[in-house]
Amino acid sequence: MTSRIVTTQPFTDQKPGTSGLRKSVPVFQQPHYLENFVQSIFDSLNGCQGQTLVVGGDGRYFNREAIQVILKMAAANGIGKVKVGQHGILSTPATSCAIRKFHAFGGIILSASHNPGGPNADFGVKYNIGNGGPAPETVTAAIFERTKSIDCYQIIDAPDVDIDTLGTSELGGMVVEVIDAVNDYVDLMQSLFDFDRIQQFLTTDGFRMCIDAMHAVTGPYADQIFQQRLGAPAGTVQNAIPLVDFGGGHPDPNLVYAHDLVEILFGDNAPDFGAAFDGDGDRNMILGRRFFVNPSDSLAILAANATLIPGYKDGLAGIARSMPTSKAADRVAAKLGIDCYETPTGWKFFGNLLDAGKATLCGEESFGTSSNHIREKDGIWAALFWLNILAVRQQSVEQIVQEHWQIYGRNYYSRHDYEAIDSDRAHTLMAGLNELMPTLKGKTFGRYEVEFMDDFSYTDPIDGSVSQNQGLRIGFTDGSRIVCRLSGTGTQGATLRLYLESFEADATKQSLDPQVALQDLIAIAEELAHIRELTGMEKPTVIT
Fold this sequence. Notes:
isomerase; Alpha-D-Glucose-1,6-Bisphosphate, Chain A, domain 3; A-D-PHexomutase_CS; alpha/beta; TATA-Binding Protein; 18 helices
């Protein structure tokens, strides 16, 4: 096996987004495209020679081919050992778990998360650092800088590695270990939650649930945990076999794309509990019988009930949420007497807080919740947390949520996504809002008076790093908010996200449909941003 240096030229579009580099599969299949980005990762990592990396992905189209390239490039770049998930599969939470368990230098995750998969759909490459979390902006900026000047990459000439058989082999002096993709993660879950109590709840109390793996990476994990270890009946986990195109579906666990699960939970003879997970297993949607749990509420409810869970029985150090996530968690933190941190969107911003012991639970409104057990969001963890709470409290999902609102008040909340819109139009819309910033304070719109408008900036309380231009916020004197930002997770055009929030303390007014409760704020957002005119869309693609 010989290592060779291949001459290349930079690509101009390899800037990582919120969570790595995401493009369509045909873009990644261009000669040198994947190799350029992977070499830029290796070139940006000081001291990686001789170290251990973890590599895996969500099984989408091009996953196996990309892993073979990465293995051969890792060997040529002097990596000492690579632990790769069997069949090339590792969920994002399981990858974080493996990095931490094996004290690896870092890991490369192949996924476009909740984006569709297939020959003409999406693919992604993300680097995670030694704490198991997504690379911070300093690292991704260094990778991007390298992509702009790269002129060669290193790779060995060798046959493809067998990634289907557990065990070790050698590749150009580098050890390749194919590891079980599921067991280490399952053991971690069992250390946090009361599996005996959940099992009794699932098997003796007439409780029924439905789990939708959406033909994505969580299928094997969900089968092992919910059906084999917790005793749920066969068929509880649906769409459990990972497919390269996710069965033609869109592996995004929300009310639109997880429509099969929604129909079951809102249908006749509905089960008591439902959960769906996304392409790489880090997002979750929680449903009760004919009841949807908003992700912002979910974070707050998990925090309020954390001491019921064995892994969190001693309480929480703090809570962290992304800026667009509702302030429901802030109210729980205030009652518990702990800090609640507001960060930009992107799980990487939670890493320092978790490492410093400042936060225990973290969450984003985009169906992501997790804790300090790893450094990624974690879909199955969230479902287990809910099941453990249900097993202890012996109430329905709806009862738990409504009781939470009665205690803390309800933060009416909704996100409107306008997907795949023209990028120029999206930036025109944001520029128009920016122009309003100096003039809005004190203006009234019906019963709402503007208290402030800004472009959110975050100073990391641990390392002092500053992240600017993280989303436009309009705050009103009653605590209501409108937030507008462009997403960094899509691969076509731009995705505009509009977030709307209003607080209601009166328990007699907490049962409205959020779209009704927020209709005045929706109208104000349209008046200020001219969304329909500039996007050319009469309604959002997805409403959460």
